[in-house]
Amino acid sequence: MDERNEVLVEIKSLKKYFPLKGGLSLGIKKRAVKAVDDVSFEIKKGETLGLVGESGSGKSTIGRTILRLYEPTEGKIYFEGKEITNLDKESLRKLRPKMQMIFQDSYNSLNPRHNIGYIISEPLIIHTEMSHNDVRSRVQELLELVGLKTRYMNRFPHEFSGGQRQRINIARALALNPDFIVCDEPISALDVSIQAQIVNLLQDLQKKLKHTYLFIAHDLSMVQHISDRIVVIYLGRIMEFADSDELFKNPLHPYTQALISAVPIPSPRIEKKRKRIILKGEIPNPANPPSGCVFHTRCPIAEDVCAVEVPEYRELESNHFVACHFADKSGKSRII
To answer: What is the rounded CA–CA span in Å between residue 176 and residue 99?
Structure first.
């Protein structure tokens, strides 16, 4: 079997609710923020799966729940075919080297009291029995791998630029040779000129080391560049899921179409003629999500049924899934 057809990570009916504090509980069900609400997808070995949506849609929560940084409310998580949803702390600790995360905030995710040599070596100290010299050699190798000079080992995080700090975060994530890395908006806090460098670095590392990525972002153009397949999420639910090229050529959900319409095109002639979709209002409060289709309050083509019935999440075309009452091959949901 082709390795790229093998499933590395799978989530089934995943839910993550955060209970709200306060209020009475006298026979009344306590309210909760439904950050992730019944999400299912799989990630194949060696691929990059993009996860996109507006801020507050639940993207980062999905990534952290897969890694068991958050405990799931319901659903199942599988890694290499083994369910890890209810692993105890010791079993989870043994699994940690295989699953790592690159965080969005490149400064706050690095301990300012330690130099970067120690920061990168910490996973090796905790999870391996390598000698001091071997750890030092490994740190130097990792620094060179991410494009930093080995003489930087004794410097502290505040002495680096944002792009350099993100390279340090990447080096730390690579220290234990993980199979799966969650990239939680790793470029959103960086200058535009640096973003492409970090994305290209991630792609080069993937080709060299055969990692699997879950790439979380709200910038669809960058996700298109790096991803093999893309999941579009809104208010904790999947709206659309397809191959990257297919999603951009044939977006079936009105929300996906709106996101794509906001992606700049480097052609003034085409850009001038193109229709831009401006969604009304803001993403609703996940503690009180809309009934029926959660997108109906902002959808340009919503009808009465959308406020009542949750649309079926279905495969409309080969490997192209969508959750919309009016998405069909006739293009009835088309708004661009």
So the answer is: 9
Give residue for tokens 């069909």: 328
Q: For residue 27, report the phi and psi dihedrals to the nearest 5 degrees.
A: 75, 5
Rounded Cα–Cα distance for residues 51 and 43 (Å): 11
Q: Residue 4: what pLDDT?
A: 59
Query: Are the C-beta atoms of residues 199 and 187 closer than 8 Å to each other?
Result: yes
Give the closest residue to 53 by CA, choosing from 296, 205, 219.
219
Of the pLDDT bands very low, low, confident and very high (cuts 50, 70, 90), residue 1 is very low
CA–CA dist 299, 305 (Å, integer): 13
Tokens at 38, concatenated: 């019944």
Structure tokens at 313: 């999440």
Residue whose pair of structure tokens reads 């090229």 in the numeric block: 245
Phi, psi of 167 (to 5 degrees): -65, -35
Give CA–CA dist 174/119, Å, rounded.
12
With b meaning 16 or more CB within 10 Å and e meaning fewer, what string describes 123-139? bbeeeeeeeeeebbebb
Contact 226, 203 (CB under 8 A): yes
Whole-angstrom Cα distance, residue 173 to residue 107?
A: 15
Instruction: Return the pLDDT at 145.
Output: 96
Question: Which pTM does this prediction carry?
Answer: 0.91
Residue from 300, 299, 297, 259 nearest 276 by CA: 259
- Find the angle CA(255)-CA(258)-CA(259) to the nearest 5 degrees: 90
Q: What is the pLDDT of residues 196-253, one digit of tens each?
A: 999 999 999 999 999 999 999 988 888 998 999 999 999 999 999 999 999 999 999 9
